[in-house]
Amino acid sequence: MLQRFSLRHVFALGFVAVALGGYACSSSNSSSFTSDPGGGGVCRNGCANGMTCSPSTGGCVECTTDAQCPASRPRCSGGACVACASNGDCAAATPACSPATHTCQVACTATSCRGVLPICDPSSTACVGCLADKDCPAAVGRPFCDPTTKLCVACSTNAQCGAAAPVCYTKIGICVGCLSNGDCNATTPICTGDLRCKVGCTSNTGCSGDKPLCETTSGECVGCLANGDCPSTAPICHGGRCAQCQNNSDCPAAHPFCGDTACVDCRNDKDCPATAPTCRAGLCTVKG
User: Are residues 247 and 120 in the same domain?
Assistant: First the structure.
């Protein structure tokens, strides 16, 4: 089960700008998104142009090297372009690079840290959430100190997760069922958008009959994946089915309306003439 409290903890820190970075995978309905890479899970809906899928890092990432980052955020850390990755990136006035926000801060003192970052780390002089597991309250479900972010999390490695959710989503420190199809077994091979393994196909060999093709993103067997999979009598692939039409503009004047998958004379009574005013099963008929 996804531990939603951990997400709230991340937002409370203001760490979402780095931990999620705006780079979680989004819907591919927009033309600005690349196609699904076929691995399911965190990248199942594709990534925005300019980003790449990296399930091990936490989904769609902005960068993999510093060279891909702008001057305003010159360092690449955890797949995101950030202001600093270490104290060496900071100026003398703000010498401490926060491992939680990756911004340069004034050096902390023993009494200057509070709130969700209550501890002054003597090695970095940055305010942090923890230095060791003993600083983390097990009672609220975040018993481990992430060695990179110095935040209390539910996990930082898979070894800290149980059988029900065996994979650590290290980007936000929670245990999940999977991050990609590779984390799932043969019985439930599809990693869904909510990061759980489910039954489904991974290739066309798992499909047959009138649904011979595998839509690997959803793990569903479908009738078509593209128009080229369809016959001339129903040339448009729409929603995994071959259809005569998707919109009214696909239909001839004799049957001007698109009803579900076929061109019809009418969709309701308003589409019919006075001589045959009743629409039944796509045909205008005389009442009776």
Answer: no
Distance of alpha carbon 89 from alpha carbon 81, whole angstroms: 13
37 within a domain of the structure (yes/no): yes
> According to the model, what pLDDT value does residue 247 have?
87
pLDDT band at 58 (very low <50, low <70, confident <90, very high): low
Based on the domain organization, do 47 and 156 belong to the same domain?
yes
Question: Residue 122 belongs to what domain range?
Answer: 4-183
Whole-number pLDDT of residue 39:
63
